[in-house]
């Protein structure tokens, strides 16, 4: 029996470059295709916000990752860099203060925990004044609503001078977990770039000394070959800035000394991080942007068959984006062989909104055989 997915559908309003988008059905494994700038990454980011239930770290990581920061001033007049939450909203009018800002809506029907985001001022929350300013105007804060529950995030610090980049968000409500606030969906997000050793080590810590560790090692053999004897994460004896530097090493049967992961190439690196993320977010959602990066075209079907199998066995819903034709055909081949549901959507422009054109497994099979463009 095929188990239900965590996000059965997606409706998106006023998020980044997308005014509106409806994806009526998401599969166990869903692949998003479409031209550059159409909004594939935006869709993955929206799902990440939804899965986190509007958690503050997830929101700020999104704006930080794109360098969306504002120059502001604290109560002492010192310059600070602040996360620009307005960048999350579609076509917000920063100059016309009379224009009511849009409300971001992210929902996954029939799930009950629909989420919305809205900018608000200190005056709206009953505060006398904001503690940070940008060009003599108070910084807008963020209101997150999930179902009937609401949280308000206020920025009270920023990146100052040459200090290590950091900031804090302070909740107006003091309780960290308001009664009835839904539990976040377990999720992991992989971007186009390869993960740093630190992030791989974090994922490895969740699977070390479990059956999942052997799954990861077996997956690596699909790229490197049967030479792979084991994988480990170690800490160097030297310390940098007070923290041990961790790195991934691989034991090969023909080599007496373990070799660093980097020596095996980008394909092995990408396979390792994808399989680790699959193991880490069992019972959750895995988001992969430009899933094909670093993977040779001949290995694409192997990758997708692994993803479908692991998603089914680990109750993981995978939503990925691609630019690659070889990735699409590999996905089609794996979807045809798997009992789990695989869906491909091509995102297209529809005025200032987006529409998702669905390709069934039969459509994909025909497209792959006749090389019909679906990217």
Number of strands: 21
Secondary-structure-derived class:
alpha+beta
Tally of separate helices:
8
**Fraction in helix:** 25-40%
Oligomeric state of shown chains: single chain
Separation of the first and last Cα atoms = 31 Å
Taking strands numbered 1, 2, ... along the chain, how are they ordered across the largest sheet? 2-1-6-7-10-11-13
The rounded Rg comes to 22 Å
Largest sheet: 7 strands, antiparallel
What does this structure look like?
- The protein is an alpha+beta fold and 375 residues long.
- Helices cover 27% and strands 30% of the residues.
- The chain has a seven-stranded antiparallel β-sheet with strand order 2-1-6-7-10-11-13, covered by helices on one side. Strands 14-18-19-3-20-21 form a six-stranded mixed β-sheet, with helices on both faces. The protein has a three-stranded antiparallel β-sheet with strand order 4-5-12.
- The chain is globular.
- The two termini are 31 Å apart.
